[in-house]
Design goal:
The chain has 4 domains: about 170 residues, no CATH class; about 180 residues, no CATH class; about 180 residues, no CATH class; about 190 residues, no CATH class. Helix content is about 50%, strand content about 15%. It contains 22 helices and 21 strands. The chain has a 6-stranded mixed barrel with strand order 2-3-8-5-7-6. Strands 13-14-19-16-18-17 form a 6-stranded mixed barrel. Strand 6 and strand 7 form a beta hairpin. Helix 2 crosses helix 11.
């Protein structure tokens, strides 16, 4: 073996071109494959850091209008008491609070959780303690994440037991969670107990506000649990038709899948693409090494004459391939250590990326990839050079052409994947968000609830802050809105159209509510189709009014006469007059369907909505760079109240770009893979054509000597060499079609049977193959017949 290794290293010096191509190709593809697999492993494959995480599910109320709705307290208690499939339910709600007195005031995302929350998850604190079922739910304690502990408290272990100010209320830090711990809401950094038994919403069966994580009993499947819970839901629907008429049952989803969301399919698409690229690289390396092995016939014959067996020769050549692949693989794995975190930084917001590492599972993947590379790249050259494929020339050439066909089939599949992904991203780019983001700065505020718990106090703050914002140089318009577009947050209410019969309980429609100040639509660049904007004259003592979205108007007044009509909301019995219609706005996501939006004046906000103080958005339209206003905006806020947190201040263009970021990442990476596939395919076609031309040098010389035209020579050789390319493209079409069907659901408005994309991919690969074939053909037609005959004599 030592002798074989020495000979393999000597070959690097003898054939540096082949060695360099093999090592570099292997290093690049292994680095890409390892980095993508490490990300997929961290986000998709690695279990959540909970006890028996496979039994954890996110439990949603299924309603007529959506499949993911929160529960009311009474409904959840009925499900928990009557079910035999649940081993515990842990309700929680989102919560925000201002961290005061630890540097600059910062708004923190958090959860209010039932005291059994951590017990159901099966999670323990790294420092201190979590809440237990026996914990007093009125206890003012908080459990924080590792990232918050490090970012705001300098990783000080003494923080446990320390009192911190959250929106003017003292809380004691009970514990710090481990680094990999993730709350169901990924942005949440803390949790505090929620008193379920004394909650003011407890008597309201129809009011759903609880999100729920549940643990299934051992051996219970999601399907079985769903069937039993749906039976309970059907009973509740009949027992409480007014409150539960629209609730059709329960939906259960694996907790990890819910936390990861759509990113799972996007990452798996990338992993599939990089594996195709790795397979393509293996075929290319094998082809190049097979051509190299062909040139070593004299060396192999000498070894056989000196007594070497075919097995001994095959082992030597296979060792050379393994050495080349091992060097390339080692370089690739080393590069992946840097590349994986760099790629992860381009896709923020995914759980697990902070703990990305080349762990045992990734090491096994690298080892398996290198083993496949070594076998695929070394077996055929070893068999050929040792005589197994050397009985005649045609079989060897057929193998090389077969590899070219396989390369082009894989390349076509990868190119179609790239094309469809680009088309989906272009479709997403063309989506009109319904507002004009250019020159708009958004600011999210969180007001201390102790001082802003009533509507008058909230409106008073707005009235004091608005003129300060308007006085900032370059600011043209200012407005406030309760929920920002693309924030992913929603506030819905049942609605009834005045003058029409009330629908049955299971068919009551809903409106998406937003409370705004005058000028919001002009500030955001939302087009007004008819009617007027809300004004400062729309107050609590005037008639209730609303501006509605185009989808709202078209659904209930398709004749185009929505202005002047009236509807009622579950907020109160007073009819609300429609005073205007504006264009639809993408509130939840660019790929989401239009919603029936109702914009209500902030001054007519009911007392039950005073919790708006915890999450208030301002938008400022300016002639300057919006980002340049951030410091001045925060200074004006501190001038009103230094305890108001304004940590989230971003241009709307940045928010819009963020809605496309994960898909943009996929497009960029797949484009790189596609470019690599084109290069590798071109190299493969070139290597085989060049070898074929070299083998046919004597024949070409004879034909030229007898007067054959160069064009005839080129056509003759091309006809035989391009057959493999054509066969690969033909084989690749159904393969690409199958992959297109599999990934179409992850793309935006893309037809998996996209003829244009398929034709373009075939055309691009055909051109690359033609160019790669033309280079050696050009040399062939310029041969000197006499020199060609002497060379092969």
């Amino acid at each position: 073996m030592r002798h074989d290794l020495r000979l393999a290293l000597r070959r690097i010096a003898r054939e540096p071109g082949v060695a360099l191509f093999t090592i570099v190709t292997c290093a690049v593809t292994v680095a890409a494959a390892t980095a993508i697999f490490a990300i997929v492993d961290a986000v998709v494959m690695r279990d959540l850091p909970f006890r028996d995480p496979g039994r954890l599910v996110w439990m949603w109320n299924a309603r007529v209008e959506r499949d993911r709705a929160p529960f009311s307290i009474l409904d959840l208690e009925d499900y928990s008491a009557d079910s035999r499939v649940l081993d515990g339910v842990a309700p929680f709600t989102n919560w925000t609070a201002n961290l005061i007195g630890v540097g600059e005031t910062e708004r923190l995302e958090g959860l209010r959780v039932a005291t059994n929350f951590f017990a159901v998850l099966g999670a323990e604190a790294a420092i201190g303690r979590t809440f237990q079922p026996s914990t007093d739910p009125a206890e003012r304690s908080v459990v924080i994440t590792d990232r918050l502990w490090r970012r705001r408290f300098g990783a000080d272990p003494a923080v446990v037991g320390r009192s911190i100010d959250l929106s003017g209320v003292p809380y004691t830090v009970a514990g710090v969670m481990p680094p990999r711990f993730t709350f169901p809401f990924r942005d949440a950094d803390m949790a505090t107990p929620m008193p379920i038994a004394t909650h003011p919403r407890r008597p309201q069966r129809g009011f759903g506000f609880l999100r729920v994580v549940a643990r299934l009993r051992p051996g219970v499947t999601i399907d079985a649990a769903t069937r039993e819970l749906n039976a309970i839901g059907a009973r509740l629907q009949k027992q409480f038709p007014d409150e539960d008429g629209k609730k059709t049952g329960v939906n259960l989803f694996p907790l990890q899948a819910e936390i990861v969301g759509d990113s799972r399919q996007l990452l798996l698409t990338l992993l599939g693409a990089v594996l195709l690229l790795l397979l393509l690289a293996c075929a290319n390396i094998a082809n190049v090494m097979l051509v190299s092995a062909t040139s070593r016939r004299a060396e192999v014959a000498t070894r056989q004459a000196l007594g070497a067996s075919r097995g001994r020769i095959a082992r030597q050549l296979l060792t050379e391939s393994i050495v080349f692949v091992a060097i390339g693989g080692a370089l690739g794995a080393a590069a992946a250590v840097w590349l994986a975190p760099a790629l992860a930084a381009m896709i923020p917001g995914l759980p697990g990326l902070e703990g990305i590492a080349l762990n045992t599972r990734v090491a096994v993947f690298v080892g398996a990839a290198l083993a496949v590379c070594a076998v695929v790249c070394g077996a055929l050259p070893a068999m050929h050079a040792s005589g197994e494929l050397q009985r005649s020339t045609p079989p060897t050439l057929a193998v090389r052409r077969g590899l070219v066909a396989a390369q082009l089939a894989v390349s076509l599949t990868l190119m179609v994947t790239v094309g469809l992904t680009i088309r989906g991203f272009v479709n997403l780019q063309r989506v009109d968000p319904g507002f004009s983001p250019t020159g708009v700065l958004s600011v999210q505020l969180s007001l201390p609830p102790a001082r802003y718990s009533t509507v008058p106090s909230l409106i008073g703050f707005v009235d004091r802050l608005r003129p300060r914002f308007e006085a900032i140089g370059g600011v043209r318009r200012v407005a406030e809105v309760s929920l920002l577009p693309l924030s992913g947050l929603l506030r819905t209410e049942d609605l009834w159209i005045v003058g029409r019969p009330d629908p049955p309980p299971d068919a009551i429609p809903q409106a998406h509510l937003r409370f705004v100040t005058p000028g919001y639509f002009d500030t955001m660049g939302i087009a007004r189709a008819s009617g007027r904007d809300v004004s400062d004259d729309d107050r609590a003592n005037t008639k209730p009014v609303a501006v509605i979205s185009r989808s709202f108007a078209d659904r209930f007044w398709p004749d185009g006469h929505a202005v002047g009509q009236h509807f009622r909301l579950a907020l109160g019995p007073a009819p609300i007059e429609v005073i205007g219609v504006v264009s639809d706005v993408k509130q939840s996501g660019l790929d989401a369907a239009p919603t029936a939006d109702a914009y209500l004046p902030l001054r007519q906000m009911p007392a039950s909505e005073a919790s708006l103080s915890a999450r208030m958005y301002w938008v400022l339209r300016t002639d300057r760079d919006p980002a340049a206003l951030v410091d001045r905006v925060r200074a004006e806020i501190r001038g009103i109240d230094p305890d108001v947190a304004s940590s989230s201040a971003r241009p709307m263009q940045e928010i819009l770009d963020g809605a496309r970021r994960s898909r943009r990442f996929n497009v960029l990476v797949l484009l790189l893979f596609g470019a690599a596939a084109l290069v590798l395919s071109g190299i493969g076609v070139y290597a085989v054509t060049a070898a074929a031309v070299g083998r046919r040098t004597r024949e070409i010389g004879i034909r030229l000597a007898f007067g054959a035209a160069p064009a005839d020579i080129a056509a003759l050789v091309a006809a035989s060499e391009l057959r493999a390319a054509a066969a690969g493209l033909i084989i690749g079409i159904p393969c690409a079609a199958a992959v297109a069907r599999a990934i179409a659901q992850t793309l935006f408005r893309v037809d998996p049977f996209d003829f244009v994309t398929m034709l373009a991919a075939v055309g691009v690969l055909g051109i690359v193959a033609g160019v790669a074939c033309a280079i050696p053909l050009a040399r062939a037609v310029r041969l000197d017949p006499a020199a060609a005959l002497r060379e092969r004599a």
